[in-house]
Design goal:
The chain has 13 helices and two strands. The chain is mainly alpha-helical and 316 residues long. Strands 1-2 form a two-stranded antiparallel ribbon. The longest helix has 20 residues. The radius of gyration is 24 Å and the shape is globular.
């Protein structure tokens, strides 16, 4: 008995359920995948292809959609094309859609047939040297509670490599600092709902202790707001981004320094000191090591210098 197949857009709801239940994907990621796939469905409809079923999807369709993405404008007024890195998000969503078909035994194009465009320039990683990091960390005026909080935020970001969303989600009860506590390890729930352990250095613990000693409120959030309409509320991601930008400018560091720059600096520092890529992957909470490999082109020149300096027999 032959199986009846629905048009591609009619599988969207089942796909989103699969992402949530079988893949444990976060709500935000589901929303993004839905948005990216709806672009594909819109393209299908514009080309009178919205009735095709999974088995009818071909490499030619994928190629034409890639051409459409490469020539599509963000705005008709600016005529600015979609960046290749953004095009990848649309194609990754489509590839996941095809993976869903494969796992549900629905005949369709293999996921690996969806190729991602490469653009080395857009994969440039911005990071700070240790001297620049030190300058940034020492910029806040720690004579008041806001400066203490900001110093603690910067120290924690660099010590742990946390994403800013993970930082603002931290609660005070996760940070159990005793009088003799030097360094500390805590468990967090990271991107995609995956748990991991992060490590607070002796410096980070010192500044957290000083900051927490000023707290007399009952808010469970680790980092709170002291200004605005809702004082003592949990700091938002945007607030932390503004804090990092403020001290970046005060320290005279590159204007493109962000919270994520500290995460990149954390990873680059570990790799420069010889920590293997798999370990750095664990520290960063990357599900796929391919994501971590973007750092290797930064560290290769430094590793070459180390090899030349320390390894092998020297010519006499």
């Amino acid at each position: 008995m032959s199986q009846d197949f629905k048009p591609l857009p009619q599988y969207l709801s089942d796909f989103l359920d699969w992402l949530e239940i079988e893949k444990g994907v976060s709500n935000k990621t589901q929303e993004n995948y839905e948005r990216f796939l709806k672009c594909f469905f819109k393209w299908l409809k514009a080309n009178k292809l919205d009735t095709i079923t999974p088995p009818e999807l071909t490499k030619e369709h994928i190629w034409k959609y890639r051409v459409f993405l490469s020539r599509h404008y963000i705005s008709k007024n600016t005529k600015k094309p979609i960046k290749r890195s953004t095009q990848n998000y649309y194609l990754i969503a489509l590839r996941s859609f095809l993976t869903f078909f494969a796992e549900k035994d629905i005949p369709s194009l293999p996921p690996e047939k969806v190729k991602l465009p490469k653009d080395k320039d857009e994969r440039t990683i911005h990071f700070l040297t240790l001297e620049q990091v030190k300058k940034l960390l020492e910029t806040p005026d720690t004579r008041d509670v806001i400066g203490l909080r900001d110093r603690a935020i910067l120290e924690v970001l660099f010590s742990t490599g946390l994403r800013v969303s993970e930082l603002v989600a931290l609660n005070r009860d996760q940070i159990k600092i005793k009088p003799d506590t030097k360094d500390l390890e805590i468990s967090i729930i990271g991107k995609g709902g995956y748990p991991r352990t992060v490590y607070l250095s002796e410096r980070a613990v010192k500044w957290l202790r000083e900051y927490l000693n000023t707290r007399g409120d009952k808010n469970k959030a680790l980092f709170i707001n002291y200004r605005g309409k809702d004082p003592s509320s949990r700091l938002t991601r945007r607030s932390v981004e503004r804090i990092v930008k403020k001290y970046t400018l005060l320290a005279g560091l590159p204007a493109n320094t962000t919270c994520h720059t500290l995460r990149h600096s954390f990873a680059t520092d570990l790799l420069m000191k010889g920590v293997d890529l798999r370990t750095v992957q664990e520290f960063l909470g990357h599900k796929n090591i391919v994501t971590t490999q973007v750092y290797t082109h930064i560290t290769k020149p430094r590793l070459r210098e180390i090899h030349r300096k320390y390894h092998g027999l020297k010519e006499k």
